[in-house]
Amino acid sequence: MAKNCKLHCFVVIAVAAVTTPVVFGQTKFEPAKALNMLNTQEQQFDKGVIKVADNVFTAVGFHGANTSMIVGDDGVIIIDTLFGPSSASEANKAFRKFSDKPVKAIIYTHSHGDHTGGASAFTGMERPDVYATEDFGSAEGASAAVAPVKAKRNVRQFGRTLSPTESTNRGVAPSNTNDSDRGEGFIPPNISIPNSGLKTTIAGVDIEFYIGPGETDDAMFIWLPKEKVLFSGDNFYRSFPNLYAIRGTVYRDVLKWSESVAKMAEFKPHVLVPGHTKPIQGEEATSALSDYSEAIRSVYDQTVDGINAGKSPDQLAHEVQLPEHLKNKPYLIEFYGSVPHAVRAIYSGLLGWYDGNPTTLSPLEPRTKAKKIAELAGGTQQLVEQMNSALANEYYQWALELSDHVKWLEGADREHARKVKISALRGLAAQEYNAPNRNYYLSYANELESGQLSEVWF
């Protein structure tokens, strides 16, 4: 950080008076406020077991996701099993303070690894029935051909390599999860839930399974009719939903997601157990689901209306907003997903990459465009001065964009442009309360500073 400060001080001296105000907006605030918001969200991951009904217990904070235990007549049912045996063993030990009955069934709400990797820790040598959807395993959908770059982006999104002083959290999960044994406790499902759903009794507990695509195509939600408890999986958590993950995903069907959550609201649960973050109890459980569904649908509808009006994804990403009556709902703050990312994903998912503007049909190659931008600025040095000014005035996004032009110019000080980009990334990170954005900015800055990235990426 010392290098950063020295660079920033140099730039301040080298440029003229402030010409551009500090820019906030979208998921950015003044740094102290942004950090306070993220620190407050940490309360959602306080480690412990929460009793949500007489026979239902949810373990929060033992890993990124939640795991739940339902106590029946002659055994227990486990819903989701965390990422690996070590975290799952700790949660299971906490559960066993409430019941020592054997595990009669395991249920996977969907196939993301943080919900499936620790099953063996709950079962020991026994092999109970394991329930999942017929489409189980289709959670990611991304081609294996891009697995190498997706792995790098995953590390950045979750801030896996950030130092303790840089880390806050992952929006809907703590930052310090133990992932060393990921997936080692996975037990394959042996009972498939049909698309029509299933109503059955396990260990004397009446339980209902409903297909509910959303964050994944293989998702379902679980309803306990007697206890009035609903397990949403990752279709609900206390944050605006991650309708697109910046690590890279195929299109998540936003409309189906909204419909699945609306279907959950029809049950009017007394308790809502999310895939991440703490359960919601009382009347708020139903209103939260209704609001969540409405928020997703509103972003979808506004985006579609804008598309049909001929607007570009860049324009729409800055225009679409949550309805006023939903903006301040605590479970819709953009800690994990964000409205701008959702808008871009919806646009691409419905129409592909092309925005319909012939100007963008065959844009200039980056080096050529950089030269043209420099010419407009009056030359390379003038463009560099504009970049320096943007950084000094804390107009970090503009500094980033200009640094990406400067890097292509012959005769430009590429090392200086790299340092400006690093400082701008850290400046943006300080303003972010969206955890994936913040983590990505900081991780990328660290990779640039350490020389891990090739000339292509910088």
Question: Brief description of this entry?
Answer:
InterPro entries: Alkyl/aryl-sulf_dimr_sf, Alkyl_sulf_dimr, Bact_Alkyl/Aryl-Sulfatase, Bds1/SdsA1_MBL-fold, Metallo-B-lactamas, RibonucZ/Hydroxyglut_hydro. This protein has 458 residues and is α/β, with parallel strands linked by helices.
How many distinct helices?
14
Number of domains: 2
The oligomerization state is single chain
What gyration radius follows from the Cα positions, in whole Å? 24 Å
CATH architectural group of the largest domain = 4-Layer Sandwich
Structural class per helix/strand content? alpha/beta
What does this structure look like?
The strands form 2 sheets. The protein has a 7-stranded mixed beta sheet with strand order 1-2-3-4-5-6-7, covered by helices on one side. 39% of the residues lie in helices and 13% in strands. The model is unreliable at 1-21 (pLDDT under 50). The protein is an alpha/beta fold. It is elongated, with a radius of gyration of 24 Å. GO terms for molecular function: linear primary-alkylsulfatase activity; protein dimerization activity. One of its GO terms (biological process) is dodecyl sulfate metabolic process. Residues 161-190 are annotated as: Disordered.
Keywords:
458 residues, alpha/beta, Serine Threonine Protein Phosphatase 5, Tetratricopeptide repeat, Metallo-beta-lactamase, Chain A, 2 domains, 7-stranded mixed beta sheet, 6-stranded mixed beta sheet, 14 helices, 13 strands, elongated, disordered N terminus
List the helices and strands and how they pair.
Layout: H1 2-14, H2 31-41, E1 48-53, E2 56-60, E3 67-71, E4 76-79, H3 85-95, E5 103-107, H4 120-123, E6 129-133, H5 147-158, E7 191-193, E8 198-202, E9 205-211, E10 220-224, E11 229-233, H6 254-265, E12 271-274, E13 280-281, H7 284-308, H8 313-319, H9 339-351, H10 366-377, H11 380-392, H12 396-406, H13 414-431, H14 435-450
Parallel strand pairs: 4-5, 5-6, 6-7, 11-12
Antiparallel strand pairs: 1-2, 2-3, 3-4, 8-9, 9-10, 10-11, 12-13
Helix pairs in contact: 1-11, 1-13, 5-14, 6-7, 7-9, 8-9, 10-11, 11-12, 11-13, 12-13, 13-14
